[in-house]
Structure formats: structure tokens, C-alpha cells
Amino acid sequence: MKNIIVANWKMNQDFATISSWINDFFYKICDDKNFPEIAICPPYLYLDMLSKVINKNNKNSLISLGSQDISFSQSGAYTGDISAKMLKDFSCKYAIIGHSERRQFHCETNDILEKKLKMTIAEDIVPIFCIGESLKDRQEKTYVDFLKSQIKSVIPKDIYLESLVLAYEPIWSIGTDTTPKISAIKEVADLVCSELLNYKNIKNFKIIYGGSVKSSNSKEILSIKNINGLLVGSASLNYKEFFKIIS
Ligand code: PGA
After folding, report:
1. CA angle 171, 232, 26 (to 5 degrees)
2. 106 annotated active-site
3. How big is the chain by its Cα radius of gyration, in Å?
4. Best residue among 5, 10, 97, 105 to mutate for probing ligand 1, ranked by most atoms within 8 Å of CB
5. Is 0.90 topped by the overall pTM?
6. Exposure of 203 by Cβ count < 10 A (0-12 exposed, 13-18 middle, 19+ buried)?
7. Which of 62, 81, 148, 211 is 20 to 30 A from 185, alpha carbon to alpha carbon?
8. CA angle, residues 202, 207, 211, in degrees to nearest 5
9. What DSSP designation does 68 have?
10. Do 43 and 68 contact (CB within 8 A), yes or no?
11. Which pLDDT does position 202 carry in this prediction?
12. pLDDT for residue 68
């Protein structure tokens, strides 16, 4: 199974920095088939710019585009939202759902996330569904039940999913320069894997890790059994650092 490395730019970058990131990155990457799959998730406004560059330079379909969120509705009076169909117009292959920053700052509940998941299916977009426990859950050792309940409340048992990317992102690790021990990531990857194997209607899934990933720790994290990729935040903003991670 090919690994996937996802760049989540969050609300960073602008026209000038993206232009130079693209120039440098695409110059280096040369469509080498040995690279993992790469998905870039820019702020919505830059999807068009990136989709044009990707369509032009991506002979082996190594690089795809993803959104950082998706609306729970098909269309209508939802000011500020972007629908699955709109994302598809810009060749988005992936959509991040349930990032802890959306849960925290936009009050996204598991119910809303279930609707969002269904929207991705309707337009054939692969969901990158994020789960992750707080430091309190980790310290009080309630994280196993918490993570299981995040999965169960968002993914209905009868749903048919051709592909799913499940991102384990402990909240206490995001943007903090602190990563869990390798054994702790492995424990969760095994747990998530056995949970997802119970879903007979999920045809393919990948489990990826996110939270303070850098070129200095990416190799070790990728060596964990059942980890098939990474979700990279701040380290993906610097094309040199991101290139080291995908190499
Ligand atoms: P980080 O963010 O790599 O900056 O910790 C990861 C994420 O939030 O997806």
C-alpha cells in the first residue's frame, strides 16, 4: 500500500508564498514514482491556483488536492460554506473532516461530522477523518474509549465507503513540538485498525498520524505497522522541510 503524506496549510500562506512554494516544490519533485502519494490542502481561495498547477505537472498522479473542510449540506443558505460539488469542480480528491481546530473553533459535533462524511461520499471525495484525544483524556487513561467513540459516532455501521483516510491527531501534540512515544502511536494505530476492520462496508482505509511531524521524526513514525502516512501542518509550509518528509 502506498503511503500518503498530507500537507495541511491551515490558514497560512498567501499568493506570493504559494507561488514560490509551487515553483520550488514542483521543480524538485519530477514525478518520481517512488515518492508517496502527496495531498495538498490549501485554504479554499487557493484551490484553483493549485489545481491548475497540479493538472499541468502531475503526469503520474502523485499529487492530489484536498480541502480543509466541507459543508454538511449540498447547497443553500449556508453563508461561508463550500459544498462537496464545488470542491469537485476544482478536482479535490480529499477533504479533511473533523480536524480538532474545526471541532474547537467552529463547534463541530460528531453529528455534523457524520453529515459531512456523507457529503464526501455523494461526490466521490475521499474523507480524511481526524480523531484525537485531549491531554486530559491521555493522562486519565480514558483515551481508548474516547477514540473509539469518535469513530463510532461519526461513521455509521451501514455506510459504504470506497476509501477512507483516518488521521490520528492527538490534540496535545498539534503545533506543540511534542509527539507521543512511538509505542503510543502504535497502540492507537492497532486499535483504530481493529475498529475499522469491523466495518465490512469500508473497502480500503489508511491510518495516518498527525501532530508535530517534522523531517526528524517522520521516518520513525512511518515505520510503525498500520501507519500508512502523515498529516503535516506547520512543517508543510516550508517546501524544503516538506520535501525532506516525503523523501
Ligand atoms: P502540526 O499540525 O503538524 O503543525 O502539529 C498538524 C495538524 O494539525 O494537522
Report:
1. 165
2. no
3. 17
4. 10
5. yes
6. exposed
7. 62
8. 145
9. S
10. yes
11. 94
12. 98
